[in-house]
Design a protein that fits this description.
It holds the Pfam family Glyphos_transf. By secondary structure, this protein is mainly alpha-helical. The protein has one domain. The protein has helices at residues 14-22, 27-30, 39-48, 52-65, 73-87, and strands spanning 8-10, 34-36. It has a two-stranded parallel ribbon with strand order 1-2. It starts with 7 loop residues before the first strand and ends with a helix.
Length: 88
């Protein structure tokens, strides 16, 4: 995701992990790429390559999950460290 490259989730055991202990997202609808459950789907997806739909999925996911990726993360961390040091 950090480099906006296509991603594939190869999860033949998705149903098992979706129930115990559970996932933080609904992989079937929210994963920022193609979700495949067997080797045949994996090969087909690899051959297809990146798609416009994949690009849209990554953009939507990044907007939802990375709201602080504005190029100012280091500045915020430094301010936090300074404020902690000033309070001690």
């Amino acid at each position: 995701m950090a480099f906006n490259k296509p991603v594939i989730a190869y999860v033949p055991d998705l149903n098992k992990y979706a129930n115990k202990p559970g996932l933080t997202i609904d992989y079937e609808t929210e994963f920022p790429g193609t979700v495949v459950k067997n080797e045949e789907q994996l090969v087909k997806t690899l051959k297809k390559g990146d798609t416009d739909q994949g690009k849209r999925q990554r953009a939507r996911f990044a907007k939802k999950m990375y709201k602080f990726s504005d190029g100012r993360s280091t500045e915020r961390v430094v301010k936090l460290i300074k404020s902690i040091m000033d309070n001690n």
